Give the backbone structure.
Amino acid sequence: MQRQAPNRIGPLRFVLVFGVVSMLGDVVYEGGRSVVAPLLEGLGASAGAVAWLAGSALVGALYGHSVAAAQTFVVVTQAVAIVAFAALVARRG
């Protein structure tokens, strides 16, 4: 009777599979967003309602990007402050 090796996935295969899953998720998400306006038009929504919805989606996307930008700014500022503090302590000591 032979022992079977545990079923493990290598790191390269894991990264590739994760990348493919991420790509497919993006395709589905962007595809869903691209059909919202034609769907609403087909359901009889006015141009104003479609524009309102599209504007709301755009503002939401911009808000999401601005939060990420603010977090990046805070992290970079803290890193610079830590380096400056370390330099001051080294100069003093």
